[in-house]
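Run ABC-2 type transporter domain-containing protein through structure prediction, thanks.
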Amino acid sequence: MIQAFLLRRWWLFRRRIFSTLTFVVVLPILIHLALTVGIGNIIMETIAKFSYQKWLYPGLVLIVNTVMIIPIIYRDFFDLRVNSRTLITLSLTPLSKIQLVGFLLLTALVEATIFSMVAMTIFLYLMDLSLSMLDLLYIIVAMNLFGLIVSNGLITLSLLTDRINTFFIVTFILFLFIIFSSELLFEFEFYPLRISAVLKNLPTSMISNWCRGLIFNGYFDWTFFLTPLGIGLVWTTINAVLLKRTLRQ
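Sure, done. The structure for ABC-2 type transporter domain-containing protein is below.
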């Protein structure tokens, strides 16, 4: 059954292949020019004396991945429910609601990961970085874990509102919150102590810390890995229940 959902992704991609590829290539270049060049000239090293460019790299990849996920989730859980009502048709299949949400979520992560890997390559070239294949694998795993949390948040939002303006305004606010609360661009040492103490407990912050801990220290923090994973899986189940109630209405 998952093959049918993957084929659907491929069919949708083929319909907008030129615009999608242009966006996938241009986005990391713009982010590099807007963030890396400017911030990199101000901050050269992290508090722990690591290269800031190398420390920043996973954060930039996670930002790109988040941007890639937004239109995918919007299309699958908002547009197909509110406008074309295709989601209602999909819900009539023998699939359970948890399977439907799970398959749509899984294929969304696959699509976003493929696009984000293009951005990873572009960032490596523009930032003149050298990372091992193992480090890149860690980032890809973190990317999917991060995407699991972000996607579930967007799915919840998509199912709770029927107004497109509300969806995009809240999404924009959430996007900014994720960027500045997940230690993607700046270390928490630059934040007030009380604020950083709270932000460190967010699942998105745990993922970025888990990834950098592996890259720079070779330490696998099981708490920072399993906690976001557990939250993501439970959230997926909650969204399945929410989808069932929303479609009943």
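The mean pLDDT is 89.
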